[in-house]
Amino acid sequence: MEYTIENEYLKLTVTTWGAQVKSVVRKSDGVEHIWQADKAVWGYHAPILFPHAGKVVDGTIEAKGGSYASGQHGFARLMEHELVAMTEDTIVMELRSNDETLAKFPYEFNLVSTFTLENDTLHHTMTVENWDEEEMPFGIGYHPAFTLPFDDKHEATDYELRFSEMESPLCVNCLPTGLVQDNHYWLGSNIKSIPIDEHLFDNDSHCMVNIKSKTLGIYEKGTGRAVVCNIEEFPYCLIWSKPGMPKFVCIEPWHSLPSPEGGSKNWNEKPAAAVLNPGESWSTTLSTSFVR
């Protein structure tokens, strides 16, 4: 199912499949900013990553005396979520633990996704509630894909990724297995922008770990049009697209990383975004502005 809300600036559509933002249209010019999930390129819009971001060792979680298969980015992006509330400016969806989730992740939980429009900004809050009788470690992250170009008068090279502060981004290397390696690299030194071109993602994503900036955005050169994400509360921020000239670019603020190469499968030993005691909850918000 899909649900739509709108205000003076934006029209937002969210799908219950994965609690994904499916569409954000800026009303002033009719631009669709969310990638429309062309399966020939990449079949998602804006997946949420839970109960882990990235891969785990051998695709396996060991917890509570059992072993559980777990694919890249967990399972929340691949499941139907339930609409629980909707107002003029807000959509709320939940994914509650059930027999299907317990077969992959042996914890009772509730994952709440709240989407709110405020002027030209979309706030997406994810709240994790531990309904289990034991401590629950988890990882979490966002993975929105923004379409390029914004219109047929431009091409991908007319855009750049722009930080709000001068940066020297140190990146975690996850090649070739998708797990964190010992060697890291610098994406640039003393830069405020990253040009978008056909070679930026030749080697997959760039996972930046030392970002000081409050925001990272995709800016159209010369016009000021932009999609700008507030990343200040996140310890990690990835940028990603398919190799070649990008048809979209993902800005991915994460609170946790993939498992390290050669690391433990034990879930309690994997670095987590948070560890919740029974009855506790934890929230994070990605705010994205669609600027004119």
Q: How would you summarize the topology of this molecule?
A:
Layout: E1 2-6, E2 10-15, E3 20-26, E4 31-32, E5 48-49, E6 60-63, E7 66-69, E8 82-86, E9 90-96, H1 99-102, E10 109-118, E11 121-130, E12 136-138, E13 141-142, E14 145-147, E15 159-167, E16 170-172, E17 184-186, E18 191-195, E19 206-208, E20 215-220, E21 226-230, E22 236-240, E23 248-254, E24 274-276, E25 281-291
Antiparallel strand pairs: 1-2, 2-3, 3-4, 5-13, 6-7, 8-9, 9-10, 10-11, 11-25, 12-24, 14-23, 15-18, 15-20, 16-17, 16-19, 19-22, 20-21, 21-25, 22-23
Describe the structure.
The chain is globular and about 55 Å long. Strand 2 and strand 3 form a beta hairpin. It contains one helix and 25 strands. The model has no long low-confidence stretch (mean pLDDT 97). The chain has 292 residues and is mostly beta strands.
Secondary structure tally: strands: 25
Strand-residue fraction?
A: 35-45%
| SSE pattern, N- to C-terminal | EEEEEEEEEHEEEEEEEEEEEEEEEE
N-to-C span: 30 Å
Radius of gyration: 19 Å
Number of separate helices: 1
Gross morphology: globular
Keywords:
about 290 residues, mainly beta, 9-stranded antiparallel sheet, 6-stranded antiparallel sheet, 1 helix, about 45% strand, globular
